[in-house]
Amino acid sequence: MDPIKLIRVSTEYAEKIWKYRAEFPNDRMRLTYNPARIPGMDYLEKYGDGLKYKNILDWLKFCENMSDKLTWYMSIRESDSKIVGFLIFRHKLEYDDDDKEFSSNFGYSVRPSERRKGYAKEQLRLGLQKAKASGLKQVRIICRDINIGSNKTILANGGIYVDTIHGMESGLTINRYDIQIV
Predict the structure, then answer these.
(1) What pLDDT sits at residue 29?
(2) What is the pLDDT of residue 138?
(3) Which of 12, 63, 74, 148 has the most CB atoms around it within 10 Å of its CB?
């Protein structure tokens, strides 16, 4: 794995964000309650699913306006400035999807062509540093019970299994983890 850094989303990267989004097919396995949502790119689905370049620009404006509650980061590979992942940091543990219990401080994804290279683990580690800098001592992270890679990523970053819950409305089964930030 080449080194990566987290940087906030910006219009400077709009074209690369658009290309990142394009690598996720619309018929992909349902990862979230909203099948149009790409983890880490939350709310993009409200802007035409990011299928048009203009929609990305509108989403970036939304991200900027929400920066007091949510911060979106891109994981940029240092060797070639390619976006390999996205991470959203929710500053407070609040209602997220169909159940209050589905709240999570982080959501993340890795570009399909860059998976199984360690980027998710490093991306979450860097995200935990952002949470620590904001004053958090603990975070909650959730993932689908069948998402083996994400479960391993959370555990590798100190995740302590809390429980498994099932969303009645979404039909998703979720593992919940807490991570103490030291």
Answers:
(1) 44
(2) 97
(3) 74
Give the residue among 110, 117, 114 at the shortest CA–CA distance from 38: 110
Amino acid at 154: I
Q: What would the two tokens of residue 101 be?
A: 């219990």
Q: In which residue are the tokens 């498994």 written? A: 164
Q: Which residues of the chain form beta strands (DSSP E)?
A: 4-8, 70-77, 83-90, 106-110, 138-144, 160-166, 173-180
Output the CA torsion 97→100→106→112 (10° steps): -30
Residue linked to tokens 């930030």: 181
CB 49 within 8 A of CB 36: yes
At 30 the pLDDT is: 45
In sequence order, which residues have a C-beta less than 8 Å from that of residue 67 and are 6 or more positions away? Answer: none
Place of tokens 């030291």: 182
* Per-run averaged pLDDT (10 residues), the chain, 182 residues: 95 90 66 64 74 81 93 97 96 68 90 94 98 97 93 98 88 93 90
Q: What is the pLDDT of residue 94?
A: 72
Residue 134 near residue 108, CB atoms below 8 Å = no
117 Cβ contact partners less than 8 Å away, ≥ 6 residues apart:
1
Contact between 9 and 61 (Cβ < 8 Å)? no
Cα distances (Å, whole numbers) of residue 151 to 79, 113, 175: 28, 19, 8
